[in-house]
Amino acid sequence: MMAQLTGNCNEMEAKMSRPVQAQRLEGLDKNVWVEFVKLAATYPTVNLGQGFPDFSPPDFVKEAFVKAVSGENAMLHQYTRVFGHPALVTILARFFGKLLGQDIDPLTNVMVTVGAYEALFCCFQALVDSGDEVIIIEPYFDCYEPMVKMAGGTPVFIPLRPKTPAPGKLMSSGDWQLDPAELASKFTRRTKAIVLNSPNNPLGKVFSKKEMEIIADLCVKHDVLCFSDEVYEWLVYDGKKHIRIASLPGMWDRTITIGSAGKTFSATGWKVGWMFGPDHLVKHLRTVHQNCVYHCPTAAQEAVAQGFQREFEHYGKPESYFVQLPQELQQKRDRLVQSLLAVGMKPIIPEGTYFLIADLSDFKAEVPNLPDCEEPYDSRFIKWMIKNKGLAAIPVSAFYSTAQKRNFDHLIRFCFVKEEATLKAAEDILQQWKLKKTGP
Ligand code: PMP
C-alpha cells in the first residue's frame, strides 16, 4: 500500500511541469525526530531518545479528562472558544498573573495552542518578517531554526560556551555560559527577536537571574522581542530557581512566554500548550491561530484547566505536583548519571529538563570516526548503539547550526523521565557494555 502511494506521488511529480515544493521549504525536509523515532521503533530498544515520560500523568488530571468526556456537559465534546477554552485561559491568567506579579487578562493576554509547538509557530509567523534576524542560543530545540526560516527570517546563532569544571567535579549545564560581549555583538538594526529556552533542551541549563538580566537589558536597549520557551519551567533541580524573563523590568511588553501541559502534567500526547504576553503582540498571534488551527480540543483543555486549578490551591505545598515531580525526576537523573559514569560516558549534570547530555569522547574506539563522512559522529554512534546495544538516544549535533555541528558531535542526549523498569533496563545494557569493554 505504502509503495503504491509513493509510486503514485512520484508519477504525479513527473507529470507536473514546474516545481511543486514552495521555495520557503528548501533545505528544511530533514527532521531528527522523524528519523530517530522511526529507528528506535524498528529495533528492539530501551528508548531514552525522544522526550516523553513512559509513566502516567497524575490521577487528578486523568480523572478530570475522564469526567470531561463521560460527564453530563455535552458541550465539552463541541468546539470551544477559538483562542482558548474559557476555564483554561481564566486559570492560566490567574496562575501566571500571580507568579509574575502582573495583571493578565484571560481574553487578551492568553492563547491556548496545539502544544508549545504551535505557540512557537505563531510567534515566528506573526512577528518575524522577511529580512528580520532572530537570535538563537546554541544548543537549541531544533524547530526554532526552520520556523524562523519559514517566516522568511534569518537565524543568528550564539553558542553557550563550556568552561572546564573545577578539578574532580563533573561538568554541569551551569558551566555552559554566554559570553556577554559576543551576545551584544549579535544585536543589530535587523534583530527582531531572541529565543530564550530556560530550562534549555537539550543541555538542561537553567539561566540565572544575572544571565537573564544581560539578555533583558539588550532586548530593551535594541527594542527586540523575546520568545521565551519555558516548557520545562517546573523541572528544575538541586534547589535552582526558574526565572521568568517577562518578570524583569521592561520585559513584559516585549515577551511572549510559552508553556506546555505536556511537560507540566506529564501528558505530552494531549498536545495542549499556551502562550501569554501583552495584547499588542498576542493579537497578531491570534491572527495566525485563527487562520490555521482555529481552536484546540475541548476536553483536553478542560482537564488541564482542572489540573491548574488544583495546583493553584496547593501551590508550593508538599502535595503539589509541581513540587513532587522535580523531586522524583532529580532521583532519576542521578540514577542515570551513575549508570553512565560506570560505563565511562561523561555526563553533563543538567540543572533542569527531561534530559542529560553525555560525552562520548572515550568511545571513539567502538565506532571509529570517519573524518570524510558527511553524517556527524554522534548520529552514526547512536545508529550503531540502537542496532548493537539496543539503547536509543538523540544526537546533540541536531541541536546545532550547520557551522557548529562538527564541534559538538561527541555528545548524545538521553531522556531520563522514565519508569524505574526502563531505567533499570538501560542500566543493565550499560553494565553489560562495560563488562565487554573492560572484562569481568
Ligand atoms: N519547546 C521545547 C524546548 C521542547 O522541548 C518541546 C517538546 N519537546 C516543545 C517546545 C514542544 O512542546 P509540545 O509538545 O507542547 O508541543
Automatic annotation (TrEMBL):
Keyword Manganese found: no
An annotated GO cellular component: mitochondrion
Cross-referenced SUPFAM superfamilies: PLP-dependent transferases (SSF53383)
Compartments in which it is found: Cytoplasm, Cytosol
Pathway the protein takes part in: Amino-acid degradation; L-kynurenine degradation; kynurenate from L-kynurenine: step 1/2
Aminotransferase class I/classII large domain mapped to chain residues: 45-427
Catalytic activity: an S-substituted L-cysteine + H2O = a thiol + pyruvate + NH4(+); 3-phenylpyruvate + L-glutamine = 2-oxoglutaramate + L-phenylalanine; L-kynurenine + 2-oxoglutarate = kynurenate + L-glutamate + H2O
Keywords assigned: Aminotransferase, Cytoplasm, Lyase, Pyridoxal phosphate, Transferase
Primary location: cytoplasm
Single biological process term from Gene Ontology: kynurenine metabolic process
Cofactor requirements of the protein: pyridoxal 5'-phosphate
EC number, as in UniProt: 2.6.1.64, 2.6.1.7, 4.4.1.13
Superkingdom field: Eukaryota
Family: Belongs to the class-I pyridoxal-phosphate-dependent aminotransferase family.
Subunit structure of this chain's protein: Homodimer.
Protein name: Kynurenine--oxoglutarate transaminase 1
Organism, scientific name: Alligator sinensis (Chinese alligator)
Source lineage: Eukaryota, Metazoa, Chordata, Craniata, Vertebrata
